[in-house]
């Protein structure tokens, strides 16, 4: 029996434990099986930990793949692309394989899905394994956009067991409109993190929509800074390009700078894969409104947008209202739209150079390069009046699918440019434009852009400057400024769309019934947030005080009508009488601030009611006229360019040569001089110490010779005294 057990043990161990069998302890235990079969089990139990300790690390372990920080990888990509912006990118597979980018994308999508940030060390191992499976599926061309039932990774909020669903539910999932799958959003985020730094280094400085660090406020400041002095304006709407575009045109635009097959195929499949959309049937009018129970949000469910933010989104201007959404590209769609329209931006930059014809008799823009500051550098928005022969110049700006072109010169130049622009859009984008879609308007009529009206204002300032000899001269000048004012007509239109008022000439506020069940404190707080956002939106408008005061009047009247209906006060006058002009007093008490309410407020049993802001025009802040710098760039691009300039060895050489020319000492020379002085002082100190040691040795030798001589003298004296004593003794004898 023991022999049979031993032979079975040999077969069980097999080839996998061959290396561990050769170990002496294991052989000793195995030889014992001839005497005792239970020794085999000891040997097996001993072999397992030995084998485990020598096992190699798993290359597919997600924890072992996270070697770097995802933000550091993204920063490296931005630096490399801004260092060589003209270089064609051929191999993006190395970044697509980096698991750190996938983890960072998972964190972003998780935050959008649940409304809370998930730290990297808090991600569960099962989620990391699913994320690794998704990455491998993308690399192996097994990933499919728009999956409905088979997912590599599921949303943390999705608790559905798809294997246990009935046929009816599966059919409903496959045939109705569903939200974008969680795994699709992760892949979109990874592709966005890879492609954005590549194209941000190549994009024109004339485009401002869907780009980091560039906002509508930036566009308004650029227009005020650089469009002063233009008489004719071309305003075009190319937003039909954002609705749909041929897949071949998008892929060709991508392949101008990116030649990676895997990334191109991923985006092509996202554009080609059909999106299942069901038509929503018109709801029948309900005869009787049923009671609706309030829905309680789950713990991991994000809260919906507050009322004030949802209302402010209704004020979005026409140019910023449309966001492209192509196929399954998701957040990649705005980036792809900018990639396609970037060729138009560069074409217009060439036209700006072509149409520039300087005139020496003009006060501004009279240099051949056209890069000199216009007029007074301390007041660049002011354009002084010049003679009949003016410099011909054009400028261009694009926000999304809307373009604005300013022309300084005759109307014929604007007509020629419009004709060339129509031909370019027809050839490049197959977009049929006509003269009506690209009207030529004079500045005196007012140009509407981003809900702000651009118009010319003639001013007569007193210009002071220092002449030769230090004499200050004051002269009366004549010139124009570009006035940027918020459109009250557009503001009324937006309020009417949100059901805040009715009427055009004499707008009448309407009650805001969406806040009917909210408390007075909560309603006032929501409206104050809306007003604060409106104040910030009209920050650069010349009529900021007027338009914000009008918005405050509409909102205050709407709330007064709401409170009159809620507390049965019949009119706004009674509401203002009880609750004050700012609606800060409680309306539940007939007398306003009653002593009972004051006592409850001190004890913290009721909410303090915040009054409405900006009820008077004097409370509205002034317009921001901060000078806008020429050749402006966002802060992140400034930091990148400064880092690259400091990292360039040529910059260090230029600094050293400049310092030498001025006869100054560079920091490196100063440090080397300090080191040389330190070494010299050390050598001098060594020499002094050696001299002192030599002197000490000489003094010691001298002292030794003196001691020897004194000893010899004392010996001689003692001998003479002994001889004298002997002579005295002999004489007595």
Automatic annotation (TrEMBL):
<keyword id="KW-0808">Transferase</keyword>
<dbReference type="InterPro" id="IPR043502">
    <property type="entry name" value="DNA/RNA_pol_sf"/>
</dbReference>
<dbReference type="InterPro" id="IPR024937">
    <property type="entry name" value="Domain_X"/>
</dbReference>
<dbReference type="GO" id="GO:0006397">
    <property type="term" value="P:mRNA processing"/>
</dbReference>
<dbReference type="GO" id="GO:0003964">
    <property type="term" value="F:RNA-directed DNA polymerase activity"/>
</dbReference>
<keyword id="KW-0548">Nucleotidyltransferase</keyword>
<dbReference type="InterPro" id="IPR051083">
    <property type="entry name" value="GrpII_Intron_Splice-Mob/Def"/>
</dbReference>
<dbReference type="GO" id="GO:0005739">
    <property type="term" value="C:mitochondrion"/>
</dbReference>
<feature type="region of interest" description="Disordered">
    <location>
        <begin position="692"/>
        <end position="733"/>
    </location>
</feature>
<dbReference type="Pfam" id="PF01348">
    <property type="entry name" value="Intron_maturas2"/>
</dbReference>
<keyword id="KW-0695">RNA-directed DNA polymerase</keyword>
<protein>
    <submittedName>
        <fullName>RNA-directed DNA polymerase</fullName>
        <ecNumber>2.7.7.49</ecNumber>
    </submittedName>
</protein>
<feature type="domain" description="Domain X">
    <location>
        <begin position="484"/>
        <end position="577"/>
    </location>
</feature>
């Amino acid at each position: 029996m023991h022999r049979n057990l031993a032979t079975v043990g040999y077969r069980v161990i097999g080839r996998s434990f061959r290396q561990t069998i050769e170990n002496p302890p294991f052989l000793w235990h195995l030889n014992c099986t001839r005497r005792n079969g239970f020794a085999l089990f000891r040997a097996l139990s001993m072999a397992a930990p030995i084998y485990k300790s020598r096992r190699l690390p798993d290359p597919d372990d997600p924890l072992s793949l996270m070697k770097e920080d995802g933000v550091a990888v993204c920063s490296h990509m931005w630096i490399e692309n801004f260092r060589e912006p003209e270089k064609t990118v051929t191999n993006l597979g190395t970044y697509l394989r980096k698991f750190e980018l996938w983890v960072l994308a998972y964190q972003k999508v998780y935050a959008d899905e649940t409304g809370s940030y998930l730290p990297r060390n808090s991600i569960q191992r099962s989620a990391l394994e699913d994320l690794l499976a998704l990455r491998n599926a993308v690399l192996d061309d097994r990933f499919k956009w728009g999956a409905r039932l088979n997912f590599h990774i599921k949303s943390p909020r999705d608790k559905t067991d798809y294997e246990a669903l009935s046929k009816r539910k599966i059919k409903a999932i496959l045939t109705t409109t569903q939200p974008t799958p969680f795994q699709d959003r992760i892949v979109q985020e990874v592709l966005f993190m890879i492609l954005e730094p590549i194209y941000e280094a190549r994009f024109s400085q004339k485009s401002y929509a869907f780009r980091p660090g560039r906002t509508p406020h930036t566009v308004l400041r650029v227009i005020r800074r650089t469009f002063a002095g233009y008489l004719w304006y071309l305003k075009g709407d190319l937003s039909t390009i954002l609705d749909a575009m041929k897949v071949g045109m998008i892929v060709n635009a991508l392949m101008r700078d990116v030649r990676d097959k895997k990334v191109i195929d991923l985006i092509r499949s996202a554009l080609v894969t059909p999106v299942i959309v069901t038509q929503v049937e018109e709801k029948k009018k309900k005869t009787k409104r049923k009671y609706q129970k309030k829905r309680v949000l789950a713990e991991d469910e994000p809260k919906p947008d507050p009322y004030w933010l949802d209302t402010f989104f209704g004020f979005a201007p026409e140019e910023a209202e449309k966001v492209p959404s192509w196929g399954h590209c998701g957040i990649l769609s705005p980036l792809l739209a900018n990639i396609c329209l970037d060729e138009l931006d560069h074409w217009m930059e060439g036209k700006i150079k072509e149409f520039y014809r300087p005139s020496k008799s003009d006060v501004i823009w009279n240099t051949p390069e056209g890069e000199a500051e216009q007029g007074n550098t301390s007041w660049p928005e002011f354009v002084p009046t010049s003679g009949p022969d003016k410099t011909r110049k054009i400028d261009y700006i694009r926000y999304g699918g809307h373009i604005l072109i300013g022309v300084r010169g005759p109307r014929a130049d604007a007509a020629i440019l419009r004709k060339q622009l129509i031909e370019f859009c027809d050839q490049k984008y197959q977009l049929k434009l006509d003269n009506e879609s690209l009207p030529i308007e004079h500045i005196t009529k007012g140009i509407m852009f981003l809900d702000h009206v651009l118009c010319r204002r003639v001013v007569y300032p007193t210009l002071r400057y220092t002449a030769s000899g230090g004499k200050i001269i004051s002269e009366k000048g004549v010139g124009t400024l570009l006035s940027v004012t918020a459109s009250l007509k557009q503001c009324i239109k937006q309020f009417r769309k949100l059901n805040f008022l009715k009427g055009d000439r004499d707008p009448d506020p309407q009650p805001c019934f969406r806040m009917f069940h909210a408390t007075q404190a909560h309603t006032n707080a929501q409206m104050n947030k809306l007003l604060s956002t409106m104040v910030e939106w009209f920050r650069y408008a010349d009529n900021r005080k007027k338009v914000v005061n009008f918005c405050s009047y509409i909102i205050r009247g709407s709330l007064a009508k709401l409170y009159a209906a809620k507390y049965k006060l019949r009119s706004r006058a009674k509401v203002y009488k009880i609750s004050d002009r700012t609606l800060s007093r409680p309306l539940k008490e007939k007398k306003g601030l009653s002593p009972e309410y004051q006592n409850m407020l001190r004890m913290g049993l009721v909410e303090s009611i915040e009054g409405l802001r900006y009820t008077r025009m004097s409370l509205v802040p002034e317009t921001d006229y901060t000078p806008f710098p020429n050749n402006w760039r966002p802060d992140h691009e400034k930091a990148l360019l400064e880092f690259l300039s400091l990292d360039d060895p040529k910059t260090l050489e230029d600094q050293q040569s400049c310092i030498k020319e001025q006869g100054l000492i560079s920091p490196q020379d100063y440090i080397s001089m300090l080191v040389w002085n330190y070494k010299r002082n050390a050598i001098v100190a060594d020499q002094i110490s050696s001299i002192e040691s030599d002197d000490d040795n000489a003094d010691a030798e001298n002292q030794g010779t003196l001691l020897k001589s004194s000893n010899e003298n004392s010996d001689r004296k003692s001998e003479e005294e002994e001889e004298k004593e002997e002579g005295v003794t002999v004489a007595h004898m």
